[in-house]
Amino acid sequence: MTRTRYRWFIVFLLFAITGVNYIDRAAISYAIPAMQLDLGLSPADTGTILGAFGLGYALTTLFGGFAVDRYGARIVLTVAAVLWSLSIGMTALAGGFAVLYAARVLLGVSEGPNFPALTGAVSHWLSPHERATALANALFAVPLALAIGGPIVTQLLGWLDWRLTFAALFILSAAWVPLWYFLFRDDPAESRFVNAAELAHIRTSDPSVPAAPHAAPKSWPEPGVLRTLLTNRTLLANYWAFFVFGYFLFFFMTWLPSYLERKYGLNLQTVGLFTVLPWLSAAVLLWLFGRWSDYLLKTTGRLRVARSYLIAGSQLVAALAVVPVALTDNLTVAIAGITVAVAASMGANAAYYAVNVDIVPHRAATALGIMDFAFAIAGFLAPAITGWVLNLRGSFVDGFLLMTALALSSVLVVLLFHHPDRDQESPATKT
Length: 431
Hints:
mainly alpha, Growth Hormone, Chain: A
């Protein structure tokens, strides 16, 4: 019997909504100058609005993981996508600070469950030796969306206005919802598009790596499970490393256009073009590192090699790359350093996600929710701290040096405490 490959179509659907997710959340960084003029927003208002997404995101990403493990990715992600489509529609209709702030908080709230749902879906639909590759394929959408989103959004802003631009994004978000609801099932055995050969493949585990369940547990985590998720040293190190990655991502996602405008006097369209290289490089490296991680796991049988060293190495490179950016006045040097920093910080993204499946496959979405909560805190802090530094110092130098310090701390924590082979799921966590 020829094996179907429907699991990869599911990965494509996850790729598509993740791309839409990031275009939706990043579009405001390009539109905010026009919105400031149209709505009479002060610099303080602007900073508050840019940080509102992280606040909303933090509220639901943690409980989003619980919800995915309880109700499944199909229902949770459907509801989430409907709500964030509505938030984009609210943005298009905003007449002042209050509605715009509420729309950004709602966008954060509704996008919170996206990555726990992605992780849960992958843990149920992909065999162990395909997980990092699948995650890399889905997460490839993040830097790709940021790479193409800049030119697309800036062009739309030039052709239309910011309200019609967000109206177009509303249509794009809403169009995905029926595809997911009707074509995805939480258990691949319930999908009419999966034949017996593919189902057997999904449920066949490599003896060297832990198996994962293929249906959601349908229960809330018990105290013993939560204790494991909050005390396991590998998971804690993973959470911190992901926080640092989030700080890098949100810094560049929210402040890179302003940095290029303020520091080098570039106009909006030029800024959109200059942001392509860093994010496109990140997309390529994320995809390659995801495949490399699975290859290392197959060849060495060691999660420490396949996950931990990849995370530590990528963050070390990112830490060193932002130093010349902080110290240079040369645009070429700055773009080169930013490109390396963005690509390296994002390169190990699939490994972070895979660690949750490796350590607690039965509660991967919940673990991802906790990890993504740390990411959400970074999403709130990175724009706010950078804005505070700019007001205090008048430059981005200290902001870049803080990122170096954070990344170096992450490298140290991962090397000392990130031991996924030792800290895999115990029988107590399977309940």
